[in-house]
Amino acid sequence: MRHLLDVCDLSVEELYKLIYTAEDIAAHGDKYAHALSGKKLATLFFEPSTRTRLSFEAAMLELGGSVLGFSEASSSSAAKGECVSDTVRVVSNYADIIAMRHPIEGAALAAAEKSGVPIINAGDGGHCHPTQTLADLLTIHRELGRLDNLKIGLCGDLLYGRTVHSLINAMLRYKGISYVLISPEELKLPAYTKRALTEAGADYIETTSLEDSVASLDVLYMTRVQRERFPSVEAYKRVKDCYVLTCDIMQRAKATMRVLHPLPRVNEIAKDVDDDPRAAYFRQTLNGKLMRMALLLTLTSDEYLSAPATLPTGERTDKVCHNSKCITNNENGFVRKSTVSADGVEKCLYCEHALQ
Amino acid sequence: MRHLLDVCDLSVEELYKLIYTAEDIAAHGDKYAHALSGKKLATLFFEPSTRTRLSFEAAMLELGGSVLGFSEASSSSAAKGECVSDTVRVVSNYADIIAMRHPIEGAALAAAEKSGVPIINAGDGGHCHPTQTLADLLTIHRELGRLDNLKIGLCGDLLYGRTVHSLINAMLRYKGISYVLISPEELKLPAYTKRALTEAGADYIETTSLEDSVASLDVLYMTRVQRERFPSVEAYKRVKDCYVLTCDIMQRAKATMRVLHPLPRVNEIAKDVDDDPRAAYFRQTLNGKLMRMALLLTLTSDEYLSAPATLPTGERTDKVCHNSKCITNNENGFVRKSTVSADGVEKCLYCEHALQ
Amino acid sequence: MRHLLDVCDLSVEELYKLIYTAEDIAAHGDKYAHALSGKKLATLFFEPSTRTRLSFEAAMLELGGSVLGFSEASSSSAAKGECVSDTVRVVSNYADIIAMRHPIEGAALAAAEKSGVPIINAGDGGHCHPTQTLADLLTIHRELGRLDNLKIGLCGDLLYGRTVHSLINAMLRYKGISYVLISPEELKLPAYTKRALTEAGADYIETTSLEDSVASLDVLYMTRVQRERFPSVEAYKRVKDCYVLTCDIMQRAKATMRVLHPLPRVNEIAKDVDDDPRAAYFRQTLNGKLMRMALLLTLTSDEYLSAPATLPTGERTDKVCHNSKCITNNENGFVRKSTVSADGVEKCLYCEHALQ
Fold first, then answer.
1. Which architecture does CATH list for A7-129+286-304?
2. ipTM of this predicted structure
């Protein structure tokens, strides 16, 4: 049985297959209208995320399946102190596949280790959110016809922006990608991510100006500066409106350039940009549904159900993870495990933070 | 594409068509059991309203369709500062039709202006709640066989009662309607509504006594005095139990008279009245479901999807709407628009409050 | 029309029929995949209980039916002061059967008295929770092949534990049952329950030691010590971790013994016990879904819909029930009724507390 916890759980080939399936669904939806009839998706949202939840529910319903679940932890057994692995073992008796959103990092892996059905990580804290990245990749592929040889501008919060790190991570596997990293000083891309770019042979430049860099881009990926990620309200206010994409700026961009945004947006894209055909962010939400449909089909197929799990494994460790948001620090009696990354650092198996 | 924001968006003919469709569904439900199979309704409830939400969901399910959505804003992207028009543009990718409830006046119009699918206004603050009025009209038609030549008693909160204003507004289009307005001094029908009655040639009398006026009525429309609408708890307490319909009072009424109530009721109708065949308020909730079924069928029909939108339009204005609950004052960067009513008053396009 | 408010609403024969139906569903699920298509279940959860709600929803979906409802009172009309009997009269127009969870004791009976469709009590405060007991009974039957001649250990909170009292109550009707009551002094089984055991000819012993008593058991029913049931946090802390079932203790038990637990568990069962084939508590949740499927099928069958209701009836009384959590003390204008039990005590019809 296969799960999806991180985009890179999928090989490049598997990812292309998903994309082609999603594009076939877009072209011939009726063919799939009963593909999962009789099957049930459980949407276990331990924190609210309407857009993601509705996208999963729409995806399942369009495949002829049905949906059950919850949209907030307040109405879940977690409130009674149940651990996430017990919850999924129980729900494995109620559903054929589970999409899980959880505020704690590593919760999806902890769940998948015990689940009787495939787990899709619909976001585990600041750690991973692979189905958002699948939406981004399908959007680039449908809008520009390729996933390689692209100049991608990443704009806004490159420090805390989970979607940005996840997109970069996924794009490392494609040839001829270069980046323009547009952010204020306080929100620059972390050093270790830049190192990853260099190691993968992707070149990048850093800048603080959106105006000056937009002209050369194939893709402009805008992000929302998220209040919740900041240490203080002041720190947030200083940078919140540092970038606003306007029609004036759009005039400097190529006719083939595309604007992506994970949404919701607040002020970072002026509303009149919505009417520009290069604004792809609403189509991006449609693509998110299509990729989730492809994913639900794939993970519930006999081939994937009978395939060996590809979950990351590690060794028991006595070292304590110092990430307070890690699942190992949020459930009692948790068995701590670690793994050693390519560059020799011992990391927590669940949240991937380095262990001292 | 057509939307339903206000009952009067429907012509008298269209309204009769809806009523006949609802009555046909009541008689031959099986005929409609798969009418919308494969279609999805999104119930976007930015504030809770169980009865209305469940009625919409039951309606869609009985037509063979399916449902997704949320029942509180806390679990919606609005919490992240997304504007309602972005939300519906996204949800337009997930559903074929949207029923939206929102605490802010004009939110339904703001949504419909950008939506890719039909919007049904399931209540926008104190502004409109057309599907409740559709339930009232079908109930009168099914119980009394006509929508004209009726003596209608409106009892309770005629000042703040949204359902009362909406029912009067809808009935203005029918002949031979007269009103008995039964309320305490503090809760009398607003002057502008009385003016509308006069202009439409409907006569009315005002009274404070239910006992003395019940004998002549064809319809008695009871309302709940709603705590939330009052400036102070004292003001509320003074009038909350001013009218209680009892079996004694019912003895004075005609055998053909019918009692309606939008529900939920608190104390304004004694429970033993429930067993009186003239008590139509529980059947009224069934009629609400039937009209919502008719409405879902109609708005998703090719004829209505291909029809031009009939949304109210207006001119950009720099005047600020002084209604603090208006959408124009609750979303940033909102384009203010106004329209001039028949009597020459410039009104906010969204909440219809007069602009100074 | 029949309802299920208490396990003992079902005769021993009816209960066996449910069990055989559930076992047939387990063996031939496909046969039932469309059994309730076109039917609707309303899950009215006035307090959250995810596991129970999801189990009901999964049950209905696997029978081809659909589901609507709410998971918290905050999003229900109760917030507006509506009484539960009005709510179910309205929902009777939206659904074919109702599963209701309510924090107030006797709410399920108050609802059933007015409902137009069958009511399943999914828990009314500390009073009854029959579908949990149905899950327990099916689990014993599937795991051990019988419901009689069993030695049952009940461990943990035997004072407040609703599931324990309900299981004992149901087992009183079977022959050759003996009990080992394992609890700390503070949480011993109430005297009246012990009296019931004696009257039914079931023998029992009381002990504080799990280790010493596990060897002879056929069934070990573990319970969670629930914070919410205790007068003070201290009282709770004193006993919360008094029993922890470990692999060491399991070594003393019979190869045929089975461990049950209503779940969620906190610390009372060590996680490594999960891998022991005698650990039946996750299978128990599957059995809960199967019994709910059997129950939905049965209560919506023509035979049961046309059968006379078997609701407990009583006489009007002026005596006030002194249980502050009783429905008679939580809804205004409630008609109080009482009934006289076998031992001559006058009890509240709704919460079954003795009236002074």
1. 3-Layer(aba) Sandwich (3.40)
2. 0.94
